[in-house]
Amino acid sequence: MRQRGKGILSVIISSLTFGLAPFFVSIVYACGGAPSTVTALRFLSPLPVMLVCLKAKKIHLRLTGAEVKKVAVLAIFGYAGTAFLLLTSYQYISGGLATTLHFIYPLFVILAGLLFFKQAVKGRKLLSGGICLLGIVFVSQFESGSQAPGIVLALCSAATYAFYTLYLQHSGLGAMDNLKLAFYLQVFGGVFALLWCFAAKTSITDISAAGLAVMGAYSMAFTFLGVVLFQLGVRCVGSETTALLSTMEPVTSILAGSLLLGEHVASKGIIGCALVLLGVLLVTVDGKEALT
Q: Model's pTM, two decimal places?
């Protein structure tokens, strides 16, 4: 029970931290940042502090050949891939809307379970899928054609994050020390981001000193309060309960966008977001892992 409480608290703090991402990213964008440079900063800036913490805790950094391959797959296709898609979507749609659409990832988890793990799909999960799709229809009607790429990118980020959650749980990497795993995810993600910067012809030097300071501080919080605590939550309470508690993230993004950035969402957009969150709640409050 104590372990469960620890996992629940970890996911709540992680969700609040992730939910503030659009607010801080918008500041950095205004200071000359781009999705590629913001991703690079988010992955690379915490590395020195993380290395010091690992040494202080006397955690060895050695990885086996199999672990290197698994971490690389998790980082590139799940961790960095999600960041790439979601950060790019912010250029087309509001952070709150992007985060809400991103949160249909539990449905992708269920779909993957059906296709790859032969898990049965219950009636509640089918109802959840229908409600989420209805919510996406409302959101799509609200958004203009020029914002459609943002919707597609946010939905794709849900697919990559579902992969991240499932692979973390089933690959055996969940047994690795949380800080050690987070460190290597940052390393592999940082390499991916630098290649992205090179391809996009962008540079961290394009960002002003104020933007660098903001992103550096948030990157620390994102890593230590977001990523590490999320991994701990998955380990303690499982992927479904983690998904349920993580619905605090889009709510935080919507509130932060409205209160801090002055973002306005019309009634159809609000209805669409509410339907998506309802669908996620229905699909995650199910089975042994549901909160009571």
A: 0.76
